[in-house]
Write a structure and sequence with these properties.
239 residues, alpha+beta, four-stranded antiparallel sheet
């Protein structure tokens, strides 16, 4: 519209896109009014707090450093395997539960329903190139010197929340024998970097910020921060 295209043309295109992609069958979401039926489908994801101030006023959430843990209901239908309903304050009041109860339920469900994948960066870059997608040169250069790993869920959608899974970081830190830097690549995945004492956190922050500005869609940016998992404390810190 700002480039001079008529609003009628834009509306027509939106309608056509919907007609081409709309589901063949409707989904019965009457179960959504009953917490007993919903509780096994509640999952969480991570979003940036500052970028979502207005939204967070209307949805239950738990602060996590400069991020927020928010909740969704995973629709249980094969053709909608990744379809979700964002849980709002009104739903929480209807079910008579609080954000902490949602978190405890989601902590179990998300790991069980969405799983996780942890792969070394080299394999991920090779997979991207095989699909005709260009890998990020800066990350590829660093990968030559330092082993890096990509953590996401099985669907690779909102997979950054995998850092909240029980024992995933703990077990990997035990394998590497080191603390783990966590670089928020996007809302969909994070990069894990075993901390050997040679990396500088400020340089890592600069890299994350540059990649967010040049490589990641604005709505998919998670954070410009860098985090570290301390294995002796079993705790994630924001640097």
């Amino acid at each position: 519209y700002e480039n001079g295209r008529p609003i009628s043309d834009i509306c027509t295109e939106i309608r056509d896109i919907y007609q081409q992609n709309k589901p063949a069958h409707s989904v019965d979401i009457s179960f959504f009014t009953c917490y007993e039926k919903v509780q096994s489908r509640i999952i969480f994801k991570l979003i940036n707090t500052e970028r979502n101030r207005e939204l967070l006023q209307d949805i239950p959430h738990i602060p996590f450093h400069d991020l927020s843990i928010v909740f969704q209901c995973l629709v249980s239908a094969e053709e909608f395997s990744n379809a979700t309903i964002l849980i709002r304050n009104a739903h929480m009041q209807l079910w008579k539960v609080n954000a902490r109860e949602l978190y405890e339920r989601a902590l179990e469900n998300t790991q069980m329903l969405q799983g996780y994948e942890l792969a070394d960066m080299k394999s991920v870059l090779e997979e991207m190139k095989a699909r005709g997608e260009a890998g990020d040169c800066e990350i590829e250069d660093i990968q030559q010197e330092v082993p890096m790993y990509v953590l996401s869920n099985k669907s690779r959608v909102n997979g950054a929340a995998c850092i909240l899974y029980k024992d995933v970081l703990k077990d990997f830190a035990m394998v590497t024998g080191k603390d783990l830097y966590i670089l928020p690549s996007s809302i969909h995945e994070v990069i894990l970097l075993p901390a050997d004492g040679t990396q500088e956190s400020e340089l890592l922050k600069m890299m994350v910020k540059e990649i967010n500005q040049s490589q990641v869609e604005a709505e998919e940016v998670l954070s410009d921060s860098v985090y570290i998992y301390r294995r002796d404390k079993d705790f994630i810190e924001c640097l």
